[in-house]
Design brief:
This protein is mainly β. The protein is 2% helix and 45% strand. The strands form 9 sheets. Strands 3, 9, 11, 12, 14 and 17 form a 6-stranded antiparallel beta sheet that branches. Strands 25, 26, 27, 29 and 31 form a 5-stranded antiparallel beta sheet that branches.
């Protein structure tokens, strides 16, 4: 049965095979992971255009996928090395190793300009039993490479960064390795301009006859890699400067479970990203890939692009709203029959709107008393807050009012009414009548204490397009 490994650029996840016994998968004490080897173990010619049978390209560094022809995952192509550039032999490990790149050309004009978006190559190897393995490795990359070694559980056991395109980096380490499919990766960053590639000369030595190359019978694994990219301009492709998305969950689901699983009868998996608030999938629009594994030791890569959701569109304020005012009727109370007289002023308004309405707010914007007979002291004896245009009652035909006033209780001072039929509902204003009763000062019966009241009422009408229109009407009447 095939096994499959999920590798994500931001967080590497891997699972190894259950170890085969060494009788089924015989090994040797030594193995070479050198770039540019044939299946018989000989070094390929130092020429451009051949495909390495063991090293695979598993991650494409954006935006290069949009700018270069010839990238074909999982193919890693040989490129001729050794040419002297600025006094240094370029990737000069030949004849021990042949350099590789993502296309059959050492010159790569379009570069990945963001260091945290590397190209990634992988080379699998197999241990038929647990063993101690000695790694002796020379490596070099243009512009910069990092070599990582992972055990069969996908755990990194060693990492070594290169020193630049003109310097061969060396390491010599020993690690205890579990049985199963292990692998070495090279992360290649090409932030400059011009040539691009890497070369590895790697010799492995085990204590026992444990090591072998991957095969159908042993280390029958395939690899899926993925990248999570924030598609900042929402065009469905990776563009210069667009960054990886950290913290996203990518799940590989098969008939036997999630992440690493045995393929079903069709070798089919579903690669699904977990959506996040504030983002919309742009490529694929479903946030999901169907993966079909047709061959052992194959490699496929997938990119998930998500677009930050734009802010809500600005209000399209169209149409109109009107408020027409009716006459004012004053019902007076005097201090001969009530120690705290509060008169009332009643009026009505006719409201229309060309678009459905979600809410009408009405508030007392201004109220003013002035003496008409020149006696300023009249204002002092009538200066109660509840008598300065306090809302006594209000109703809008066909719409519920959300605040109920009771100004007959002097402790209440209501200055605003809100009319709606509940969240998410709308209504039409087709000449609906809004009745309003205000509390105003009582009368004294004294000729020297005649007052003029001026009250301005503001209406805020919010329509279904979230547009608000403010209309103000002012009343004037004598007390």
């Amino acid at each position: 049965m095939k096994k499959i490994t999920l590798v994500v650029l931001l967080v590497a996840l891997a699972r190894g095979l259950v170890a085969q016994d060494c009788a089924t998968c015989p090994g040797s004490r030594t193995l070479s992971l050198t770039t540019g080897l044939t299946t018989s173990g000989s070094v390929m010619p130092n020429a451009t255009g051949a495909i390495d049978p063991y090293w695979h390209l598993i991650n494409v560094a954006p935006p290069s996928v949009n700018g270069n022809n010839g990238i074909s995952i999982p193919s890693a192509y040989t490129v001729q090395s050794g040419n002297v550039i600025i006094g240094f032999p370029w990737l000069g490990l030949y004849p021990n190793a042949v350099a590789l790149s993502v296309i059959a050309n050492p010159y790569f004009g379009t570069n990945n300009t963001v260091p945290n978006q590397p190209w990634r190559f992988v080379r699998q190897f197999y241990l038929c039993q647990p063993d101690s393995v000695h790694f002796v490795v020379d490596h070099i990359g243009d512009d910069l490479d990092t070599v990582n070694i992972f055990d069969s559980n996908g755990v990194s056991v060693f990492s070594n960064s290169g020193a630049g395109w003109h310097t061969i980096q060396h390491f010599d380490v020993t690690r205890d390795m579990a049985a199963g499919c292990s692998y070495m990766t090279v992360e290649l960053v090409n932030t400059g301009h011009g040539n691009m590639g890497f070369a590895v000369n790697a010799s492995l030595t085990a204590n026992q006859n444990s090591l072998s190359n991957p095969s159908t019978a042993c280390c029958n694994g395939s690899m899926i890699s993925g990248q999570k990219i924030i598609d900042s301009n929402c065009n469905g492709q990776v563009d210069t400067g667009e960054q990886p998305g950290a913290g996203w969950t990518i799940t590989l689901s098969g008939s036997s479970g999630n992440q690493t699983a045995t393929t079903d009868a069709n070798g089919t998996y579903t690669l699904q990203e977990a959506t996040q608030t504030g983002f919309t999938p742009t490529n694929p629009a479903s946030g999901q890939f169907t993966v079909i594994v047709n061959a052992a030791n194959s490699a496929q890569t997938f990119q998930f692009l998500n677009c930050p959701q734009p802010p809500p569109p600005p209000c399209q304020c169209e149409g109109r709203a009107t408020v027409d005012q009716g006459p004012v009727t004053v019902t007076a109370q005097n201090n001969t029959s009530n120690a705290n007289p509060i008169s009332t002023a009643t009026t009505s308004f006719t409201l229309t709107a060309s678009a459905p309405v979600s809410e009408v707010r009405m508030l007392i914007d201004e109220s003013r008393l002035t003496p008409t007979s020149g006696n300023e002291n009249c204002i002092l004896c009538r200066n109660k807050p509840q008598a300065w245009a306090n809302i006594n009652a209000g109703s809008l035909a066909g719409v519920a009012n959300q605040i109920t006033a009771n100004p007959s209780t002097l402790e209440r001072d209501i200055r605003e009414l809100v009319f709606n039929n509940g969240a998410g509902t709308v209504f039409n204003l087709n000449g609906n009548t809004l009745n309003l009763t205000l509390g105003v000062p009582g009368v004294t019966g004294l000729a020297c204490c005649t007052l003029k009241a001026e009250v301005c009422v503001k209406f805020i009408i919010r329509d279904v397009n979230c547009c608000e229109r403010e209309i103000e009407k002012c009343l004037a009447f004598n007390l």
